[in-house]
Write a structure and sequence with these properties.
With 277 residues, this protein is mainly alpha-helical. The chain has two domains: 83 residues; 128 residues, Orthogonal Bundle (Arc Repressor Mutant, subunit A). Helices cover 79% and strands 0% of the residues. The chain is built from nine helices and no strands. Helix 2 packs across helix 9. It is rod-shaped and about 155 Å long.
């Protein structure tokens, strides 16, 4: 606005100089001048100049208003663009937060799964170690019994039962029942059940399955060394030790040992690799 005012003053000054020059030339040459240049008409002349400048100034003012409107439009466009960019940035930031949250949740889940798997592995190793110790003690006890007489507290029935299962391996017979063992030992089912319960702290089914599972473990161990049962499947091994099928074998194994045959042998193989390494 200051620039326009200065421009107006400068133009007014230039026009007045030009009109003064015309007055000088007309008076010296004694030529009649236009009515607005007659003597004593200076105020009118000045008013004419002001009107002309005012018209030009009004035109400039219109241009200025138009220019300001254009600037305002551009500012509004810039504001809208900034609003859109801010909105887009917030959406991207929200998406980033979601991705970070999901990533943290996945990491936490993986860590939890790893912890559970590690705990499970340690538990399996402990179970295998305990059962292997039990089997070792049982083997040593059998050797001692072979070289020494049975204690006087043991009945002849228990001795015959152990001979029947450890030497003749009667437990390999599928569908073996109490009556089958009773006929072989020439006793009755009540005496046999009491002897198993008091001496072995098991019922007949658990007693039979214990022998079957122990022999199955030995077969599974021999498979890794290319023994007699190297090409046997789990089904074949189960039937070889006296189970009717794979399902019954898995159920009995899980109940007695606490692991499945696959889990048990997995721990055994890991221990062998550690020893080799």
């Amino acid at each position: 606005m200051k620039t326009l005012a200065l421009s107006h003053k400068r133009q007014r000054y230039d026009m007045l100089l030009f009109i003064g020059f015309l007055l000088f030339t007309t008076s010296s040459s004694r030529v009649s001048c236009p009515p607005f240049l007659q003597e004593n008409e200076e105020p009118c002349l000045i008013n004419c100049v002001d009107m002309a400048l005012l018209e030009q100034y009004q035109v400039d003012d219109v241009l200025l208003v138009q220019y300001l409107q254009e600037i305002q439009y551009e500012v509004e466009q810039i504001e809208q663009l900034l609003v859109q960019q801010v909105k887009s940035f917030r959406q991207q930031l929200t998406l980033l937060y979601r991705v970070i949250f999901v990533g943290c949740a996945i990491i936490a889940l993986l860590a939890y799964i790893y912890f559970l798997e590690r705990q499970k592995t340690q538990s399996q190793r402990h179970i295998v170690q305990q059962y292997e110790t039990y089997l070792q003690h049982k083997k040593e006890a059998r050797k001692e019994n072979d070289s020494a007489k049975m204690s006087c507290t043991l009945t002849k029935l228990v001795e015959d039962l152990q001979h029947l299962f450890e030497t003749e391996k009667t437990y390999r017979q599928q569908g073996l029942s109490v009556d089958d063992v009773v006929q072989k030992l020439q006793t009755n089912s009540k005496y046999l059940s009491n002897a198993i319960n008091q001496h072995f702290h098991k019922n007949f089914t658990e007693f039979v399955n214990t022998y079957r599972v122990e022999e199955a473990i030995e077969i599974l161990k021999d498979q890794n060394e290319g023994g007699e049962y190297a090409h046997y499947t789990i089904q074949a091994i189960a039937e070889a030790v006296g189970f009717n099928g794979r399902t019954a074998f898995y159920a009995a194994f899980k109940k007695l040992v606490g692991l499945t045959p696959t889990e048990y042998m997995g721990v055994i193989n890991q221990q062998k690799e550690v020893k080799k390494g």
